[in-house]
Structure formats: C-alpha cells, structure tokens
Specification:
By secondary structure, this protein is mainly α. The protein has one domain (2-53, 65-197). The chain has helices at residues 2-19, 29-42, 68-85, 98-114, 149-165, 171-184, 189-197, and strands spanning 90-92, 118-122, 141-145.
C-alpha cells in the first residue's frame, strides 16, 4: 500500500511540475479551493518529488483531513479546467488501482461534463521515457482531453508497438516517441528534455 501511494504521488508530482503553474483554473468555490490545495501541496519542484505527507494529514485535533478520493478529484477538476481552457491538450489523473478508480470514476465523469471535456479510463497506459514504468504498472489512469486528442494518443501507442515489433524501439526513435507524448501533454521542449534526463527507477 505504501509503495502504491508513493508511486501515485511521484507520477502526480511529475505532472504538476511539468505544468509550471501554481494556481488552479477550476470553476466554483468548492473545487477551486480543493484544487488549490492539491496544486500547492505538490508544488513545482523536481518531477520525482512526492506530495508532502502533511498535505493530507490533520494539523491538530480540530483540523479537517482531506481524504484521498477528494484530493484526486480536485486534481482531476483542475486538469479538466486546463484542458477546457486550452492550456493543455491532454492531462492525466494519478495512477490508481482498479478499486480506487471505481470509487471516483463516476464523479470524475460529472466533473468532465461540467468542464466540456472527455475522460477515458486507460488500463494500458503508454509507457515512455518521460516517467518511470513502475509508476503505472498494474494501474489505471484517466485521460482528460477534448476533440481528437485521444486518437493521437492511440496512434502514438500504435507507433511504439510497431517500433517494438521491428526491434527499432531504441535510441532516437524511442526518444521521439517520448517527445511526442510530452508535446501531447503540452509540456515545453525544455521540460521534456528535463524529464528525459531524469534517472528512472
């Protein structure tokens, strides 16, 4: 359980770090407040940084603890607003187990509808050199997008499979797949190169 939470935090932190944004665009006071807590707790540091444990822990006996489900939905709401505003083409939820995904996917669908975006429950995530493979191994991720973005994502997955089948998924071809995925996530060229340079555990 601890390893799963650590992996989820690392993946989520990598995304928020790549945004380079410190505020939420979420509509509505409730979601904005929660999303600000989510983004502030993750920060804009190294992609490998974890969200501080104290972000989810009560400060005192009278403190209100934010449960994991609400935390994750706040993040989804923030990313849905970014996609709706055109800040991002594709956004990703934290990687979750099937049980964790079941617990929030219907509310996530409502949030997506409120922000005029779509979500897709991805059970076979596109692994590239942007993120460590173990962060999403055995996990599910929500794709948050508009228009034909998901089709581009699926085409990129197919391209990786094609290269692997030909024994050519290495070197520059492998990095090109990662760079295309980073561009789909609306990461800057500089951020993509930073992520590629990060050691993968």
């Amino acid at each position: 359980m601890l390893r799963q939470r650590e992996a989820s935090s690392k993946f989520d932190a990598a995304q928020h770090s790549a945004e380079g944004r410190g505020e939420s665009l979420v509509k509505g006071t409730g979601w904005r407040t929660l999303a600000l807590i989510v983004l502030a707790s993750v920060g804009c540091g190294s992609p490998a940084e974890e969200a501080p444990a104290e972000a989810l822990a009560p400060v005192g006996a009278q403190s209100t603890q934010i449960d994991q489900r609400s935390y994750r939905l706040g993040s989804i709401g923030a990313f849905a607003e970014m996609v709706d505003a055109g800040v991002k083409r594709l956004a990703l939820s934290a990687p979750l187990t099937a049980t964790e995904m079941d617990a929030l996917v219907h509310e996530a669908e409502r949030i997506a509808g409120d922000h005029n975006v779509e979500i897709y429950r991805e059970t076979d995530f596109l692994v590239t050199d942007l993120f460590s493979a173990d962060l999403t191994e055995g996990k599910q991720v929500l794709l948050i997008f508009r228009g034909d973005t998901r089709q581009e994502y699926e085409e990129l997955k197919a391209e990786k499979i094609r290269l692997e089948g030909m024994g050519e998924y290495e070197g520059e071809a492998r990095r090109a797949v990662a760079r295309r995925f980073g561009a789909l996530l609306s990461y800057s060229d500089e951020k993509i190169e930073t992520l590629l340079a990060q050691p993968k555990e």
